[in-house]
Write a structure and sequence with these properties.
alpha/beta; 2 domains; 5-stranded mixed β-sheet; elongated
Length: 197
């Protein structure tokens, strides 16, 4: 709910009663996120908040149109701050060198695979039946296999991503090797392990 509040702050001064019907359209999106099985989907910090942002902007436009107000420059500054521009100078640039290896690894993922991967590669796996970030509760590979149906690990222990740890990922990869999974590594420590049929 904190992120919903942050999303609303730059728009709040522009919402009026005329905005209410449009803003009510955002309630089902919030409810779906809250009821989701995945913690990442319950957190509106990710791309799941994009439809809420569109609804908020349309509500603001309705409010502005209803009172004939002019644009306020600080509104753009507030939206730019929500975009987290500092990420483009730090975390995102740090992963730029991984792009060729990531593409090579992603080509090996089959359409029916259930994947445990890092947060920044999960976006490229959205069409899968199961995509999971390895978290503290996923220390045992056998549990991931049985409960989640995971048959492929695509991990990067040096840069584990959001909600994961390098040690946890190294442990899962080691368990996969001991259990006879077929594994492949790239020079920057990106690793893919597939359970053999």
């Amino acid at each position: 709910m904190v992120y919903v509040l942050l999303l609303a702050l730059p728009l709040l001064p522009f919402w009026r009663r005329a905005s209410l019907p449009v803003l009510l359209a955002g309630l089902p999106l919030i409810v779906v996120n809250i009821l989701s099985e995945s913690g990442a989907q319950r957190s509106l910090v990710h791309h799941y908040s994009l439809p809420l942002a569109v609804i908020g902007v349309v509500g603001a436009l309705d409010g502005l149109a209803s009172e004939g107000e002019r644009r306020v420059p600080w509104r753009r500054i507030a939206w730019a701050a929500l975009a987290k521009p500092w990420f483009f100078t730090g975390p995102y640039l740090g992963r730029l060198a991984l792009v060729p290896e990531s593409r090579s690894a992603l080509e090996l993922v089959r359409p029916g695979d259930a994947v445990a991967t890092t947060s920044y590669l999960a976006l490229h796996q959205s069409g899968r039946r199961m995509v999971r970030f390895p978290a503290a509760s996923d220390r045992d590979l056998e549990t991931l296999e049985r409960r989640r149906g995971i048959n492929l690990l695509l991990l990067h222990p040096q840069i584990p991503g959001w909600a994961s740890e390098g040690e946890l990922q190294r442990n899962l990869l080691e368990q996969a090797r001991r259990r006879g999974w077929s594994c492949r590594s790239w020079p920057r420590d990106l690793q893919l392990c597939r359970r053999l049929a």
